[in-house]
Amino acid sequence: MRALPLDLIDVDSLHTDEERQIRAVVRKVVDDLVRPHVATWYEEGRVPARDLALEFGKLGLLGMHLTGYGCAGASAVAYGLACLELEAGDSGVRSLVSVQGSLAMYAIWKFGSPEQKSRWLPPMATGEAVGCFGLTEPDHGSDPASMKTRARKAGTDWVLSGTKMWITNAPIADVAVIWARTDEKVRGFVVPMESPGVTAREIRHKMSLRASSTGEVVLDDVRLPADAALPAAEGLKGPLSCLTEARHGIAWGALGAARECLHAALDYAVSREQFGRPIAGFQLTQAKLADMAVELQKGYLLALHLGRLADAGSLRPEQVSVGKLNNVREALAIARECRTILGANGISAEYPILRHANNLESVLTYEGTSEIHQLVIGQKLTGLAAFS
């Protein structure tokens, strides 16, 4: 009798009924809205992101782990399960939800004024307004402290100038949370994308995350009122805390891509015959499948542990780095190994494996490269910073 990888150690028994119900709802919406179309979206390099945002908003998936302002107030584990199911569909689709909820909405929810929260969070929770998060720059990714985007005072107003790069949702966004250097420290700003001087350009010719809307945001002397600044965010601690929030979802989401690849490889291996029998009956194939199933389960247990810590209010940034580093790295290794089981068919869009592998190359890099997370963990182990 065949067992699916996560059935081997019965991880389902570790969840509450409510968590399983949320997972089932998200899995169904992915089955209905994403899986039938995602190969075409990927091939054509487009995605109906605003339509998806509205559908996800109806289900309460946008900012689902936040409270108030129309947000669902779900647990961190429930949010993680949603990320896993969304990324089983496609990493780009999960990125849409992660950037909306864990970066743009979270920044406003955590650091915004009551007026900023009331204006933006309710329509963002329903998907009527889409947000993006502007931290990365063309020359400054892993080193945000060196950002060139500037905010200067002009009377009581702020004037922003600079460029942000590789910004998910930017081409379709209604609002951006932009991080800029002032004369004193880094500050966050809520920037309506319709503001004069704001330009968003879609980044084309991507070989990864093609079912995701990614752009460059140019700020050309954008004048904003004083109340555009996030009042409770001063210094790099603000944006970095947002990244920690998003990385937790990524540690779960990458497992969804890995699970989807492993399921596809299992189905293929038991039906594909060579030398007179299914390739699943050969020792080398079973060794690959067994090793991948073990790594998937280990990653799942790690993500679940981090989720429980988050729900208890005790999750630390370096612990999130462990989850992001391990789970994305292992998910990518699983995707690549699964491709070998399918042979030449592994590169066909008829199967999801190479699409997931290509996407995971981006997931490996964004929200902190593997090297950055290794240094975060190394600093915690040694007490010595090795970032410069």
Automatic annotation (TrEMBL):
GO BP field: fatty acid beta-oxidation using acyl-CoA dehydrogenase; fatty-acyl-CoA biosynthetic process
Keywords: FAD, Flavoprotein, Oxidoreductase, Transit peptide
Stored InterPro entries: Acyl-CoA_Oxase/DH_mid-dom (IPR006091), Acyl-CoA_Oxase/DH_mid-dom_sf (IPR046373), AcylCo_DH-like_C (IPR036250), AcylCo_DH/oxidase_C (IPR009075), AcylCoA_DH/ox_N (IPR013786), AcylCoA_DH/ox_N_sf (IPR037069), AcylCoA_DH/oxidase_NM_dom_sf (IPR009100), Glutaryl-CoA_DH_mitochondrial (IPR052033)
Segments forming domain Acyl-CoA dehydrogenase/oxidase C-terminal: 234-381
Residues annotated as domain Acyl-CoA dehydrogenase/oxidase N-terminal: 16-128
Coiled-coil region(s): none
Pfam name, any one: Acyl-CoA_dh_1
Leader sequence segment: none
Domain Acyl-CoA oxidase/dehydrogenase middle span(s) in chain numbering: 132-222
Highest taxon listed in the record's lineage: Bacteria
A GO molecular-function annotation: fatty-acyl-CoA binding
Keyword match Transferase: no
Family: Belongs to the acyl-CoA dehydrogenase family.
Protein name (Swiss-Prot/TrEMBL): Glutaryl-CoA dehydrogenase
